[in-house]
């Protein structure tokens, strides 16, 4: 392949994460690599003085690529393709210091470890069940395991002990796995925990083997079964795991690809005093003109961008809503007002545990609306921060209503990226709500008398 031909292939690449594959005339892989920025990585092949890389380019006939949502997914996909197709240049360029493997032991509570030399580990007669690899990027692999351990805790203690370890107290270890059998806690909980622990190890193995979507589907089915059988606590726990797995990959993209998003995330995180990164935000608005055709809208922004796959519209029936609340013994007649309609929308939305939950809820409205949503979420035992955005005389958002804060916070006090994001979400929620209202109004206007 000449440099001119390589330039043509590079022009088709995007600037995000993914894998690239140099192929021969028959279309077989010669070399597979991953990149945080495909266009930049491929461009570096035009300037390299590394004789091995130059040989790859000269031997190749084409360059293909596959985009991924994050560097972590690129790492896992690259590992699977190298393992399955064993491209000649990947094999030749491999050495003991380059590739990583994740090992799993055969213990009652299996351990997870990294190694460069799986054959040497086996020769030492350790109780090793399996290895996953090769992985080319040790830093990304270690970050991935750190993220996954928060969702699926496992033990790293080198010896058994009588008291719960530090990792147990910070949520990275179940605790029972590293207690001595003489400990009373071990005898009471070990059998049940052993099953849960092995499920955690299986989940990590599935993800590293490129079976993330299969795992999520299994968890979603289990969540629905638990909810159907009335075990809502377990269903909520499983739903949290599903969301956390998704965030593992989203967080990696945020942290490593965009300084702007990193700033925006950090600003919001401190604003709502949350330990969890603000990745997903839902915005809500009620369109209620003279009490007719009242509608509610929900828009979703992920990583600062609208995700229309998770936009939702709610048709509100005031009479039905009022009767529903009356049947429950709720005699607050404000249900015909915006706050009551907003409460209905929030309740209907958060009954859908299969929809990903947000890290922040943004309400178009003032203190009354915010307090309504906070109260409703508390009743539903859902812990999600809520912020309201109130309008000035020109109906333009100008300050935030934050629970626990005595006075509203002016939007001009925020980082420009935060301010623009809040205004964009509020505007999109209003546009989406009013669009649905107009659609319903047109249907009524065209209806024959």
**Helical percentage:** 40-55%
Class inferred from helices and paired strands: alpha+beta
Q: What's the domain count?
A: 4
CATH 4th-level superfamily of the largest domain? UvrC, RNAse H endonuclease domain
- CATH topology name of the largest domain, in short, is Nucleotidyltransferase, domain 5
- The proportion of strand residues reads 15-25%
Which series of helices and strands comes N to C? HEEHHEHHEEHEHHHHHHEEEEHHEHEEEH
Cα separation of the termini: 73 Å
Task: Write down the overall geometry.
Answer: globular
The radius of gyration is 27 Å
Query: Which CATH class of the largest domain applies here?
Result: Alpha Beta
Corresponding CATH architecture of the largest domain: 2-Layer Sandwich
Write down the overall mean pLDDT.
79
The biggest beta sheet reads:
8 strands, mixed
Low-confidence segments, ≥5 residues, pLDDT <50?
A: 251-266, 320-336, 445-449
Helical segment tally? 16
**Count of extended strands:** 14
